[in-house]
């Protein structure tokens, strides 16, 4: 199936430059890049859902902490003042 995608001149130039550097056909490179992005997006969504489910499971099991504990940890972790 053929899909036509209109790119900005800047994006087209970047794609063509990358294809030249890699010695690849620009259409093949575009297809590979799109496949990689779609795979990453699906994996990212799956990981997010798994993380949310784990959090819900932990909550149901009584394994959670107060917001104050979480906030203190984040302040320590990122060296933030208490009034941040």
The Cα radius of gyration reads 22 Å
Largest beta-sheet characterization: none
**How many DSSP-defined strands?**
0
Q: Low-confidence segments, ≥5 residues, pLDDT <50?
A: none
Percent in helix: over 70%
Secondary-structure element sequence?
HHH
Number of helices: 3
Q: Give the N-terminus to C-terminus distance in angstroms.
A: 53 Å
The portion of residues forming beta strands comes to under 5%
Class per helix and strand makeup: mainly alpha
- On the 0 to 100 scale, the average pLDDT is 94
- Shape summary: elongated
Description:
The chain has 84 residues and is mainly α. Helices cover 71% and strands 0% of the residues. The protein contains 3 helices and no strands.
Which helices and strands appear, and what pairs or packs with what?
Blueprint: H1 9-22, H2 26-60, H3 67-77
